[in-house]
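User: Could you write out the 3D structure of this protein bound to calcium ion? I've included everything you need below.
Assistant: Certainly. Input first, then the structure.
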Amino acid sequence: MIKKQIIPLFILLIVLTLTCSSCGNNLSISEITYNVSGYVTDINGVGMENVILNFASQGSTQTKADGYYQITGLKKEISITPALDGYSFEPNTTTVNQEQNNVDFIGQKDNHSPQRYTFKIINEYPHDIEAFTQGLYYEKDSFYEGTGLYGQSDMRKVDLQTGEILDIYKLGNQYFGEGITLLNEKIYQSTWKSNTMFIYDKHLNLIKKTQFPFYCWGLTDDDLYLIMSDGTSLIRYIDPDKYEVSKEIKVTINNEPINNINELEYINGKIYANIWQSNTIIIINPHKKKVDGIIDLSGIINPHLYQHELNVLNGIAYDPDGDRLFVTGKLWPKLFEIELIPK
Ligand SMILES: [Ca+2]
């Protein structure tokens, strides 16, 4: 009798041991998964479609037409961040774990429409009607001006009041001059299609001519980097010694790329940029990667008053001491100091 009772007990013990070790595996943390779902709605409670929900670095999903989303098979605590161009969300990110399976978000349209400006002419100055202005920079009552066209390109220093040419360097027939700037006490002048950068001292003595690996239109700087445009919607920050790209900004308004970005000027932390073949200068906030302002310079000059054909608006310069903003155009007889008037 005793032997008969011992054998079933022994079997029961083995079964219990196997079951427990199996139970232990099921309960290991790495095997537990959980789901999170919810709705993304606008402030009126209407579901928002195609909102991307990024969950940490593990992936993303997006909302359906009614704003519903679901993330399945999560294994550990993660953060969920909704994203849709032009919108911000409340909460902007949230952390979930297996005890929280429902999270809703509310989206609100960003109010970042650029400020629009018209202008007031404060002063007019003479400008050489043969200067096909590609780059303009102000310092101490003078402008450094780079001009373009094959056979006519030069780098010049001109007097603000009289327009008199104080110094000039002619580039040579094979070069088409482009944007200029003054950085580290040197003038940089870029060229179109020839991958060449001319570098001068302030009397326009050529210091050197270097290989520049970019197709360049406009040029400015933030005291650290050369900042260039190339006729697309891209602004690039370039190391002035190595000519390597430090960062890039794609310029958009309402998610539409702004192309034909041309002459540039870095003013108080923002990049002012001529849009080629338009009367528009945009004000780019490089830190927020947004366009803060749009300046409409239509009517600043009347082309019918002149016998020769004026080319497009191009040329922005700034006097930081006098807080003066200057603009001109290619082959324009005048250069203007303007004040911006919010519309
Ligand atoms: Ca400029």
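Residues 135-137, 220, 263-265, 316-317 surround calcium ion (CB under 6 Å).
User: Perfect, thank you.
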